[in-house]
Amino acid sequence: MIGLTFNKYGVWAIYKFEMARALRTIVQSLITPVITTSLYFVVFGAALGSRVSGVGGTSYGAFIVPGLIMLAVLTQSLANASFGIYFPKFTGTIYELLSAPVSHFEILIAYVGAAATKSVVVGLIILLTAGFFVPIHILHPIWMLAFLFITAVTFSLFGFIIGIWANGFEQLQFIPMLIVTPLTFLGGAFYSVDMLPPGWRTFSLFNPVVYLISGYRWSFYGKADVSFILSFAMTVGFFAVFLGIVSWIFKTGYRLKN
């Protein structure tokens, strides 16, 4: 049924508009993450890497690459998707969008698709940038791309929810800055959870970001803090939860109709 009524032109128009906005702010969208990643390698890779023999048989500089990519992808997915849907609310053009001949499903595909595309591009650019600092070997490239894509889509859905929920720019930044970013730093981006004392390791397993970073690191080196199957299942579970919340938002009109 969706295939018969799918408005590909409407989806493409919204998607193209969102991608054009990224090109207008290319310094913020692409160059800034590359510079930030380079600084991480200078501080963590060079300063600490020379003092750390390695983690799980992998040099410390190479070990932090998956964590850096996940950090950027999570941040960019949330920021791109949340701002993308919040700005039409802020300007009042959201009502024109909702009355246009595009379904809620098509609006979701366009905004989430654009946000995920930008996040994946940033992730791949950071991967290329990292190659100038440390030798990188990707053991499972297909899984690496698959995990990168599903993570970007999942957190773009999360960002979409934040953009609809937010009533101001302060709320728009609240969850990404005060919740998601700290969870990412505490999720094993720069260290292995196995290095923690048993009590702290058990506590860390309640951090959902641990599973994202661990699973993504497995696609590079074949080693992870938790099972890759569990990591992938948790990511798919997050996707299902966020998709369900978005469906409820469109069904009820939560913060869209007033």
Please outline what is shown here:
By secondary structure, the protein is mostly helical. Helices cover 76% and strands 0% of the residues.
Structure notes:
The protein has 258 residues and is mostly helical. It has one domain. 76% of the residues lie in helices and 0% in strands. The chain has twelve helices and no strands. The chain has helices at residues 2-5, 8-24, 26-48, 60-63, 65-91, 94-99, 104-130, 141-165, 169-185, 198-204, 208-221, 228-252. Helix 5 packs parallel to helix 8 (141-165).
Distance between the termini: 30 Å
Task: Tell me the Rg in angstroms.
Answer: 19 Å
How many helices?
12
Question: Could you spell the SSE succession in H and E letters?
Answer: HHHHHHHHHHHH
Number of strands: 0
Percent of residues in helical segments? over 70%
- Percent strand: under 5%
Broad structural category: mainly alpha
Helix and strand arrangement:
Blueprint: H1 2-5, H2 8-24, H3 26-48, H4 60-63, H5 65-91, H6 94-99, H7 104-130, H8 141-165, H9 169-185, H10 198-204, H11 208-221, H12 228-252
Helix pairs in contact: 2-7, 3-7, 5-7, 5-8, 5-9, 5-11, 7-8, 8-11, 8-12, 11-12
